[in-house]
Amino acid sequence: MAANAIDQTRRMLSLVTYLRERPGAHVADVARAFGITEDELISDLDVLPMCGTSFRGGDLLDIDTDGDRIWWHNPDDVAAPLRLAADEATALLVAARAVATLPGLREGDREALLRATAKLETAAGEVAGASARLSVTFESEGGVFAEVDRAISERRRLWVRYYSPARDELTEREVDPIRLFAVGHTYMEAWCRLSEARRTFRLDRVAEIRILDEQSAPPEIELRDLSEGLVQPSAEDPEVVVEVGPGGRWVAEYYPHDAADELPDGGLRITLRTPAPASLRRLALRLGSDGRIVSPQDLADSAREAATAALAAYESQA
Predict the structure, then answer these.
(1) Which residues, at least 6 apart from 57, have a Cβ–Cβ distance to it below 8 Å?
(2) Rounded to 5 degrees, what are φ and ψ at 189?
């Protein structure tokens, strides 16, 4: 089972210390030492260069790999004593206090965070007093994240009420969570007991969530490679053709597609594949006069009917 977000953070912190003591370490050796695959290690190494001792990006970890060995080019610079500016200390204290209030955070992690915050307050001096006048309130997605993370850690099943935009409805289901990941939005990958299949749930579409007493027991399945994005259409998926005007060219940037041919008016004729063509009805409604579904014909008719019904509903309220 994939590590949860907190476990991954712990691993990456340990990885920094490990690599500092082993310049030129072999990828295979490091992956074996941490009990992860080489692909998971490379994924961690892709994140580490975005971390460092300054929020301003001046002291980031200069770590790279040629696929065989790992090189850290500036360990001495990063190891220099940390000096936080007033705005950095304020931001860090406010964030730490906010995270400590998250529901579902493991008590041991909460206590460790509060101890670290107290030490930072002592070191920050007057800045700590200023930061105490600021607060952050997490939206519901933060609570959902904490519950999912806890369920993964404790290997427990979840009950969720989930909004499906493709069907425009709320469904209730029990799921065995597998992992959390972020691709633009934050998602939970889980084994859905309603459909008896792997499903991906966007956290901001979870209307309600509860941790159950039942143990989570997802089947052994290979995790999807998300390096190419969340949506990775298959050659067997149905083909859909959409024509958009100049105002709808953004569709080609957000939707994986097979082709995007220029049209005389400055628009595009976009050919794409999707396992759920009906979900594109909402795209057609969003585009309005900037686009239309060309094929398949039944989907084009369905989108036209949905637009007509929406227009009639607006006119009836006029």
Answers:
(1) none
(2) -95, 130
Do 314 and 308 touch, CB atoms closer than 8 A?
no
List Cβ<8 Å contacts ≥24 apart for 201-205.
Answer: 201/160, 201/162, 201/175, 203/141, 203/144, 203/145, 203/148, 204/139, 204/140, 204/141, 204/144, 205/162, 205/163, 205/164, 205/165
Cα–Cα distance between 184 and 182 in angstroms, integer? 6
Rounded Cα distance between 171 and 201, Å, is 12
The radius of gyration computed from the CA coordinates of the chain, to the nearest angstrom, equals: 24
Question: Per-residue pLDDT for 113 more than 70?
Answer: yes
Average pLDDT over residues 77-88: 60
Length of the chain: 318
Helix (H, G, I), strand (E, B) or coil at 196: coil
Nearest to residue 217, comparing CAs of 155, 139, 295, 158?
155
Q: If you write DSSP's letter for every residue of 70-99 in order, what string do you get? A: EEES-HHHHTSPP---HHHHHHHHHHHHHH
Residue 197 pLDDT level (bands cut at 50, 70, 90): confident
Is omega for the bond preceding 296 within 30 degrees of 0, making it cis? yes
CA dist., res. 47 & res. 66, Å (int): 16
